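Data card: per-record layout.
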Amino acid sequence: MFMKKTKYSLFLFFLLLVTSCNTTKHVPEGEYLLNKVTLTTDNKTIPKDEIKSYIRQMPNPGIFGIYKMQLGIYNLSGNDTTKWLNRFLKRIGDEPVIYDEQLTKVTENQIDRLFYNRGFMNAEVTSDVVFPKEKIAEVKYKVKANTPYKIKGYSVNISQPELLEIASDTARSLIKPGNLFDSDVLDEERARITARFRNLGYYNFTKENLHYYADSTYNSYEIDLVLEVNNESQLADTVSNNTFRKYTFNRIHFYSETDKSFETIGAAVKLDTLKLGNYEIVYENERNIRPGVLIQSTHTIPGEVYSDREIERTYSSLNSLSAIKYMDINFVEIDDNKLDVYIVLTPNKLQTVSTDVEGTYSAGYWGLGGNINYGHRNIFKGSETLSIRGRAAYEYQGKDQHAYELRGDIGLKYPTFLLPFASSEIKRNIRATTEISGNYSFRRRPKEYTGIITGIGFKYSWSERFWIKHNYDVLNISYVYYPYISPEYRDYLSTSPYFVYNFQNHLIMRMGYNGSYSGFRPLQPMRNYSTYNYGVEAAGNLLYGIDNLFGSKKDAEGAYKIFGIRYAQYVKTDFNISHHQIIDKNNRIVYHAGVGIAIPYGNSNLIPFEKRYFSGGANSVRGWTAYQLGPGTYKSSGRHIDYNTQMGDIRIDLNMELRSKLFWKLDGALFLDAGNVWTIKDYETQPGGLFKFSDFIEQMGVAYGAGLRADFSFFVIRLDLGLKLHNPALTRTERWRMKLTKDDYAFNLAIGYPF
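The structure for this 755-residue chain is written out next.
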């Protein structure tokens, strides 16, 4: 059946390929389809990818850089635009890129300017256009860099003391003797000096006030460089000139609940004006945000010197408040070198409600589930965020066998640290949130059990700039309670001590930290970048320490209990890294590696079920569905997935995925996955699951496959077909799957990208 479907898919693809092979169908007479663009350069100083970004005309993109499906779909359309099919095909496809001689000349000039700015002032950039077929054009760019100019010496000629000190800082300076005479670096150095100088209060100073004097000996390719201030003596001697005037913040004015611009803010109806020292808050309607929250989120402090850095921090802090949609800051110069600050705030939509419905599949049974979500972005008028989520799911398991799940979650997030001894200065300087949460879940599976999970949590979150984030769970308590276990299921559980442990009432009291780093820069979207996620959590240590301190008695199994409930004790750590290699705007390769380990100790011999790892599924090794792979070489004997045995304490995931845009909202992917989970101890009910350094590489599951992604910007629907390449659960002679069977593939549907 699988092979038959594959043949049909290949036939449809071949049909599309044939029907769209006339790539010049919509190319007018006398014009040419730009089919190919190549670039050669004899210089390695400037990366080839960076040079390509200056090419002003590129051919139609291809899937994985090969087949131009978007152009092919466009070519399936006819010229009659009154037909909806033709309009639809043209909308989801890409019209042919027609060769433009003028854009080729512009590209030559742009690349030449790039090399000139980097110090290669004698670079030669040429282009060659060939026409290999009728209506087909190919462009070849060639760059000969020649000898570059370099900096021989660098000095600073500035009399203003503070500016001189910043500009003469050789440790921080971007200009070094021997480096290329790179105008971009020179401009970055001006920006660096200006930023530090403005942070000292010099509000009217700009980088245009700085210029370089360059002196080059004939044919030496070496340049002596001097940094100076434009007309410095005139700026310093003119009383009315404010370039070197140092400013301080005077009064801070907030205008809340307005959609007016700063220029028309004076026309605002001041229904409610509040003055607190040098702060003034004007509310057009009600006091929608408490004054203390606004003041605490503002880094422009009356009496302190002007600083660009504090302005940026104010933007960041106020924009992070959920009650504010957007804001703007303006300045008015007044006497005595002071600045009045005007902060105009526009409120956000306060309440949101959303619902969604989904199909479910668990242990061989189909069902239906739904969620309803409610949010309030300013519940106590301090930009506190309230979120409430309810879930209900139903599953039909046979005659008079109805399984269902009810779940509720509530969270309250404060836009600051809720620390009893933290000063207002600490709260202002660290952009943080405090979240208090609670949850309740009731699950009934009549053939098996009834389970109840309740929990509460308290955590801090904060960030450093925009790319480093931290989360610290101060306290998280969850209680798992099983009021009913069917006799048949209890008999099944009795076959393994681990099964029994999983279905005992237990308490998890944990604390933990996790962080993330992203190298993505919005201003450089075509630059390669990496992301990191890491975390560690520990449970039961405080309770175990108290029991030891007071000499509490252990039960018959050698474990401590609190209120008659056994508590878990373990440590768990995870690390994930992803690297995005950008080929072009339509193609990229993403590499991912993830490892995790959970170790029970003290009051526990086993890791709680909900804290163990599983392999397979949409975000792991996609040749298996979730919980199907591992641990180690273990193979389940049942028809359905056994969640109790197909989990482990150690996980490894290695993934590589080539992503490419297909057409319209549809993207495609080719992937290669490897990984598995293992146990940290040799459990009798999980034979072959123990992790050993000598064997784990041979026990890695390996899968390959292809996927489709429907990218709607705000969310991504993903469908992946994974094929097993190496199955560690089989005998050594059968592990490499050269002849596929119906058991060697898996479909995985998910929301969002896997990594």
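Known properties of this structure: The radius of gyration is 33 Å. Residues 248-347 form a domain with the Ubiquitin-like (UB roll) fold (CATH 3.10.20.310).

See the next section for split statistics.
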